[in-house]
Amino acid sequence: MTNPNEKQEREFSLIQLLPNALTIAAICAGLTAIRMAAQDNYVLAVNLILLAGVLDGLDGRLARALGSDSEMGAELDSLADFLNFGVAPPLILYFWALQDVRGIGWFAALVFAMCCVIRLARFNVGNKTSENEGSSAFFEGVPSPAGAYLVMVPLYWSFAFPESNGLPGLVLCLYIIIIGLLMVSQVPTWSFKATKISRSNLKFFFFAISIVFAALLTYAWLTLIVLCLAYVATVVWAWVSAKRS
To answer: Is 6 part of any domain?
Structure first.
């Protein structure tokens, strides 16, 4: 006879399944981004990766808020991160500008993907071994979502300035490899999750956020370039601060 308590433990409300549904939606967005790139629809492909990043930021937080986080959800999230941030972005870049330098272009895409999967594996192991040590103010290496957004900067530039000439294929390959190596480096990068805003500064924070969103809605690609450059500045600042300490 089935124990009623055991049956209750195996049942989930629909709202508790929402985080995993968002992760699956992010995976669908990443896969569709690859398809759009193969069909030369690069604007939609990049937008789908950006959407996948938003969903990635929501699913984990929603799972913790609903108390529905699980090992399966964590593994699903990690697989989604590899697809959306390690596989789709270099493939989009390959379809966009690297098919004329197929050998080195594919090599660069592979290096980026392998760096991403190593980064995610290292992050997952670090989470399991230090889950009781509290949140650190810095990551080690560039996180995979940030790496994906940074590696697509040449695409943002081409969308913002369509009359400009893109990077030469070999330079673009080198850029992809450098961003990939930054993900597996020991360079300290700022953890936004651990950042706290004092009550007295909340008005300035919300004002800055409103400016950013207004800029994204008006000048999306140019704003993304500026945000990526600002992020690079925080990485340099964190690296210099670590060297001084």
So the answer is: no
Residue 89, domain extent: 12-244
Per-residue burial over 217-240, b if 16 or more Cβ lie within 10 Å, else e, is eeebbbbbbeebeebeeebeebbe
**Residue 145 corresponds to which tokens in the numbers above?**
């979502």
Say how many domains are in the chain.
Answer: 1
Q: Which amino acid is at 123?
A: F
Q: How do residues 152-201 score in pLDDT, each as one tens digit? A: 999 999 999 998 887 888 999 999 999 999 999 988 887 776 677 788 88
Judge if pTM exceeds 0.90: no
Look at residue 218 and tell me if it is in a domain: yes
Read off the CATH number of the domain in which 116 is found. Answer: 1.20.120.1760
Q: Is the pLDDT of residue 110 over 90?
A: yes
Domain contains 112:
yes
Q: Residue 48 domain-assigned?
A: yes
Residues 6+ apart with CB under 8 A from 164: 157, 158
The CA distances from residue 133 to 18, 63, 69, 77, 130, in Å, are: 29, 21, 19, 22, 5
Q: Which residue has the tokens 């999750």?
A: 193
